[in-house]
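Okay, is this right?
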Amino acid sequence: MPTAQAIVDCAVYVDGERLPGRFTHQAALARAREEDTGFVWVGLHDPDATQMADIAETFGLHQLATEHALQRHQRPKLERYDDSLLLVLRTVSYVPHEIDSVSEIVETGEIIVFTGPDFVVAVRHGEHSGLAEVRKALEEAPAQLALGPGAVLHAIADRVVDSYIDVAQSVENDIDEMEEEIFTPRSKVTVESIYQLKREVVELRRAVNPLAAPLEQLSHKPDLPVPKEVRRYLRDVAEHHAAVAERINDFDEALSALISAALARIGVQQNTDMRKISAWVAIAAVPTMIAGIYGMNFDHMPELHQVWGYPMVWALIIVICTGLFFTFRRNKWL
């Protein structure tokens, strides 16, 4: 397939301003190199190997870096190839659902960002990780965009971390709602739904936590090809990331406590059910015992041949069973 089909947007920026017109990625790079302060920003969505090879040849990307762009479900990481950087970010998206649902709650994707002295290549995997709003916001802030490819790198990382915060807030709302339901009588929340949310939190943690090391390197290592001003912004992103990572770790502990509470509630319910069953069995044992005694067919038994014997036995059964019923009811067994 032609490379153009994988390209979402391709633009040349000079002094923070987007040049008018449409460019192929080759023409855009050539035009940017004509300008001392120009760079190219190319966005791709799910390119295949042939399309990625064409991009790599145009921008001089390392073969290993190109292979990373085609892989899915990677850990966030930062790698340097001479004067270019490769940053892998995991994206997350919250899926609205019912509180007792056991379906997928968090979807993940990837953004792989290549930066060089005069280019940014952003490769996306997944349907929820669009960067159109990031590009629009930067184009409305030419002073920021004038900082070059590093500004784009920061904006993408900032957008991804902001999405972590939004998803973490939604998951926290789920946990709060689930906690309220757990302690509500006749709750519909099952242990399976808590386990599902816990599994999704584990998936969220695997996507979010490993980004700490790349952000630390970008914001504190002066030997990386990132402008000093951009490193200041990246330190702010790193702080936000640390906060959301800590929240996600707390979610795991909260869900473990909810599982314990749910299991305890199930145990209490089972004990209650067993007490009710035991109470009814005790009540049913009285007529069973008396009927068993009078069913032994002996001639010489008290009141066996008396006219009032049969109603007396029934009266005795009713009195004893009624007494047992109210005794168990008073003790809250029934």
The chain has a mean pLDDT of 85. Residues 155 and 183 are 43 Å apart (CA to CA).
